[in-house]
Amino acid sequence: MVKKTFGSLKSFTLKSKRVWHVMKKPSRKEFETIAKVSAIGILLLGLIGFAISLAMKMFV
Questions:
Q1: Those residues with Cβ within 8 angstroms of residue 34's Cβ, 6 or more apart along the chain or in another chain
Q2: Were both Cys, which of 1, 3, 7, 26 would link to 30 (CB 3.0–4.6 Å)?
Q3: Spatial distance between the Cα atoms of 36 and 56, rounded to a whole number of angstroms
Q4: pTM for the whole structure
C-alpha cells in the first residue's frame, strides 16, 4: 500500500515537473483575451442565475 502510494506520488511529481518546464508566460495580449473571455462567462452565468431567480419569484 505504501509503495503504491509512493509510486503514484513520484509519478505525479515527474509529470508535474515536465509540465512546469513546458509552460511559458502568456503575453499581455493573451492575458487580456483570457481575462475578457472569463469576465464574459462570469457575467453570462450571473445573468442566467438572475433570470432564473426572477422567474421563480414570479411563478411561485
A1: 26
A2: 26
A3: 30
A4: 0.60
User: Do residues 35 and 26 lie in contact, with contact meaning Cβ atoms separated by under 8 Å?
Assistant: no
CB crowding 20-52: b at 16 or more within 10 Å, else e? eeeeeeeeeeeeeeeeeeeeeeeeeeeeeeeee
In one-letter notation, the amino acid at residue 35 is: A
Q: Compute CA distances 22 → 11, 15, 16, 18, 19, whole Å.
A: 17, 11, 10, 7, 5
First to last CA, the chain: 54
